[in-house]
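User: Could you go from structure to sequence for me? I need the amino acid at each position, not a summary. Structure tokens:
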């Protein structure tokens, strides 16, 4: 994780957490993640490249609102694997799991307006753009406009 994406300022440029300064930072974060799995309501996956078994990114529910059965997603991946269709594939798989197994009704994600490639991932996964919240977020570049996308259960092709 540290070597493949967490320490890369280009990967973390539009994220809300800074690049990891050492492998110890990554180890500490992983220990926190592992401890959270015990509660049953924590959803965070590593992405493994099938051909090599190498970990190349992660995708997770960053906010779960059980009142309305909604999940907000976050994801990041090693630069070496950008543009290969892997993140949309992972996002689709996670959304399927959240809809079919967890019982979520709405899955949403947002990106910095200056990072349209992240929005393209959401579109390829079948999410619809909802709108832009001006100066509504802060990432490693500062205050930013947030572009929101979502999919609700009734949007899914298999549910039509």
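Assistant: Here is the amino acid at each position, in order:
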């Amino acid at each position: 994780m540290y070597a493949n994406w967490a320490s890369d300022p280009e990967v973390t440029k539009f994220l809300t957490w800074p690049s990891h300064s050492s492998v110890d930072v990554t180890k500490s974060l992983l220990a926190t993640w592992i401890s959270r799995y015990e509660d049953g309501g924590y959803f965070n996956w590593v992405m493994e490249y099938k051909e090599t078994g190498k970990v190349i990114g992660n995708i997770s529910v960053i906010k779960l609102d059980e009142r309305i059965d909604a999940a907000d997603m976050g994801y990041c991946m090693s630069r070496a694997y950008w543009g290969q269709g892997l993140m949309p594939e992972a996002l689709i798989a996670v959304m399927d799991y959240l809809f079919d197994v967890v019982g979520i009704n709405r899955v949403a994600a947002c990106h910095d307006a200056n990072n349209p490639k992240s929005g393209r991932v959401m579109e390829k996964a079948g999410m619809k753009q909802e709108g832009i919240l001006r100066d509504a977020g802060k990432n490693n570049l500062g205050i930013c406009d947030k572009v929101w996308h979502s999919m609700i259960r009734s949007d899914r092709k298999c549910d039509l």
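One structural detail worth keeping in mind: The radius of gyration is 16 Å.
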